[in-house]
Amino acid sequence: MNNTYKNLFNLILLFIVFGTYIDSFGNNRYSNHDTVFVMSNQGFTDYVVIDCDSLSNETIFWKSIDWINKTYKNPNETIKSQVIGEYIILEGIAPSLCKMKVLGSSFSEDVRYRIEILFKNGRYKLDVVSLESYSRGSQYTPPGWYDMKIDEIRKYYYKANGQIQPRFKSYEVDIPKYFNELNQNLKGYILNSDNSKQNDW
Fold it and tell me: CATH says 35-191 is which class?
């Protein structure tokens, strides 16, 4: 009888451990909020921090400037402010990033974003400071850029039960995806580009 109880206890313990492992694996995408952007009823990730293999702050800064020059059509207009080795503030536009369905009709809006990149201790911090969507206007509102209230995500985009409002459903995927891809592009350029090759000719 004792062996039966012992075997049953071991079996239960095995299920608990295995279940915990599966749960942690399934929720792995939520375990790195400091390195990826996520949008949920808890809000939008404040910022991400990326380690750059002990590169100096100035090296990361200049590689970031070079990346901006190669990524954006008008880099001089994109960069709003900068201090060498300390930070860059830039502004860009993501065409048709916001897709919505209202009363059976689908439409999209451009998004204007402001990003702050700070450099410290061989790392950079990428902070999406603000998002604005461009409305074509209606009988109730004039056309123009409107603040998307990213600091109040739950209030404006989610129901009381925590579910996202149907017309904003694509936001949860498309907005984080855009900024994660932008960040991965920047990170890849910083870590893989070799500025010294520019002088080797």
Answer: alpha beta
> Do 56 and 121 contact (CB within 8 A), yes or no?
no
Say if residues 122 and 51 touch (Cβ distance below 8 Å).
yes
What's the token pair of residue 5?
């109880």
Domain boundaries, the chain: 35-191
Summarize pLDDT for 14-30 with one digit per residue, the tens: 444 334 333 333 333 33
Alpha helices (runs of H) in 137-195, residue ranges in sequence order? 153-157, 171-192
CA dihedral 50, 183, 154, 111 (to 10 degrees): 150
pTM: 0.78
Could you give the 3-state DSSP secondary structure of residue 59? helix
* CA atoms of 176 and 184, how far apart (whole Å): 12
